[in-house]
């Protein structure tokens, strides 16, 4: 297979053998971010489709996710970055009950490489922990990620909790993840949340929104 097809295939097959050498070769052709966006994410999309249609079993999805993570970790030092973390601080977490973190970690990388300080709390984080971290770290914003349909409900409950604690105007909230839709966030959630809540389709929209919030 040609290089970029082979790389995409490695994600789908969960095949790490020779991954680094292929990534080195790919880096001679295009920037790290383009490799992630155009090649690796396309492989993850196929994994999602195969799993969703019952053609791929969960342990293999996990293997694919691990190869994806290894590839992103390998590429990260090759990404362009602004050195200062001085543009603002965001607390980032995958919500309660959800273990998906590849997208959240990409958001972390993109924001960190573009001048933001990211406090990444990890997966399955209850709102209490997120709010404590936001207060402790004097965060400028909170970012929540979640890929399960039930996570969209958790996000709404989290915003309700923020309303009832009277902290909604303190932190703008960025939401992202595959199960969310723009209209759910911009209509339903905007209507109930007393503060500022925004939808990010991908990590780059997350960056644009942070720039707008801090601007
Ligand atoms: Co799971 N999984 N999974 N999974 N998994 C999905 C989400 C699913 C859609 C697959 C499918 O059925 N087709 C489905 C959800 C269905 C639903 O809820 N309706 C699903 C399921 C069902 C499950 C389990 C329940 C399976 C089971 O146990 N029977 C289980 C859930 C466990 C749990 O959470 N409690 C489970 C487990 C797993 C693995 C552990 C095997 C693995 C995750 C490994 C890991 O993350 N460390 C996994 C994977 C890999 C997937 C798919 C295949 C790929 C997800 C991914 O990494 N995509 C996924 C299929 C899919 O999404 N279509 C699927 C790449 C990633 C870069 O995209 O995270 O969407 P994403 O991030 C994007 C944007 O959404 C955005 O930016 C990123 C791109 O720039 N974004 C943000 C995300 N967060 C953001 C936050 C922001 C801004 C932007 O600001 C705060």
UniProtKB/TrEMBL annotation:
The B12-binding N-terminal domain, residue ranges: 1-87
TM regions (residue ranges): none
Domain called B12-binding: residue spans: 87-215
Family: Belongs to the vitamin-B12 dependent methionine synthase family.
Domain notes: Modular enzyme with four functionally distinct domains. The isolated Hcy-binding domain catalyzes methyl transfer from free methylcobalamin to homocysteine. The Hcy-binding domain in association with the pterin-binding domain catalyzes the methylation of cob(I)alamin by methyltetrahydrofolate and the methylation of homocysteine. The B12-binding domain binds the cofactor. The AdoMet activation domain binds S-adenosyl-L-methionine. Under aerobic conditions cob(I)alamin can be converted to inactive cob(II)alamin.
Record function comment: Catalyzes the transfer of a methyl group from methyl-cobalamin to homocysteine, yielding enzyme-bound cob(I)alamin and methionine. Subsequently, remethylates the cofactor using methyltetrahydrofolate.
Name of the protein described by the UniProt record: Methionine synthase
Protein's organism: Amycolatopsis minnesotensis
Residues of the full protein shown: 615 to 829 of 1162
């Amino acid at each position: 297979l040609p290089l970029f097809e082979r790389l995409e295939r490695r994600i789908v097959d969960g095949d790490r053998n020779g991954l680094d050498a292929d990534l080195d070769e790919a880096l001679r052709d295009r920037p790290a971010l383009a490799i992630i966006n155009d090649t690796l994410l396309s492989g993850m999309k196929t994994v999602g489709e195969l799993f969703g249609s019952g053609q791929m079993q969960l342990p293999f999805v996990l293997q694919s996710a691990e190869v994806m993570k290894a590839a992103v970790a390998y590429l990260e030092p090759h990404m362009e970055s602004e050195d200062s973390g001085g543009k603002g601080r965001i607390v980032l977490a995958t919500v309660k009950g959800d273990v998906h973190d590849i997208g959240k970690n990409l958001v972390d990388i993109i924001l960190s490489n573009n001048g933001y300080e990211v406090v990444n709390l990890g997966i399955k984080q209850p709102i209490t922990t997120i709010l404590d971290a936001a207060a402790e770290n004097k965060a400028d914003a909170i970012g929540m990620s979640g890929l399960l349909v039930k996570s969209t409900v958790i996000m709404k409950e989290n915003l309700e909790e923020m309303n009832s604690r009277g902290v909604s105007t303190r932190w703008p909230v960025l939401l992202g993840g595959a199960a969310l839709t723009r209209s759910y966030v911009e209509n339903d959630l905007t209507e109930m949340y007393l503060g500022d809540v925004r939808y990010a389709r991908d990590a780059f929209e997350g960056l644009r929104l942070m720039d707008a919030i801090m601007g």
